[in-house]
Write a structure and sequence with these properties.
The protein has five helices and nine strands. The protein has helices at residues 15-26, 77-94, 111-122, 137-144, 158-170, and strands spanning 4-8, 30-40, 43-51, 56-61, 69-70, 73-75, 97-103, 126-131, 148-152.
């Protein structure tokens, strides 16, 4: 397996949960970020970006007025650039594992994010992350790379994929 392991799959299949479990169970010295849903009364209103060292910001929300939109969510690229991109670069410099959750449509609006992802993927560090199922030139190129393992997560294969990630992290 290569230096990167990326999960893809439909929303709600547990991609972020599997990544967080892998980080906790492996205790491998990870840096980077994950995304977290913002919900109010059971309704998804947006997405928060959370770094593994505790910084956070609102990446997308129904109340954000932005020309950059994914569905009903306005996207605040400055949050991604100031928190997420910084977390990727810090992880490449200081951590054993770079976590990038997610390489998705919202994040791919940012040229700085795209550059940071490309640099992380060619670094000597292992990269664990999630990537959109939907077509996008960068996402398509990443998924087709022979040095990157892409696994489609479903509700039925979560335990298997987690075990495979933990084995990969030990290599």
């Amino acid at each position: 397996m290569g230096q990167a392991y990326l999960l893809t799959g439909m929303p709600g299949t547990g991609k972020t949960s599997i990544i967080r479990q892998a980080i906790t169970q492996s205790n491998c010295g990870a840096g980077g970020f994950y995304t977290q849903e913002i919900r109010s009364m059971g309704i998804r209103e947006g997405f928060r970006i959370v770094t593994l060292d505790g910084k956070e910001g609102i990446l997308a929300h129904i109340a954000i007025d932005s020309p950059l939109r994914v569905g009903k969510y306005g996207v605040d690229i400055s949050v991604l650039d100031n928190i997420g991109v910084e977390a990727i670069y810090n992880a490449v410099k200081q951590s054993n594992l770079v976590v990038i959750d997610e390489i998705g449509k919202m994040e791919l609006f940012s040229p700085r994010f795209i550059t940071a992802v490309q640099e992380a993927l060619v670094s000597p560090k292992k990269v664990l992350g999630t990537i959109t199922l939907k077509p996008h030139p960068l996402a398509d190129a990443i998924r087709q790379s022979k040095s990157i393992r892409v696994a489609e997560l479903t509700r039925n294969n979560q335990k298997y994929v987690l075990a495979e990630i933990l084995t990969w992290l030990k290599q």
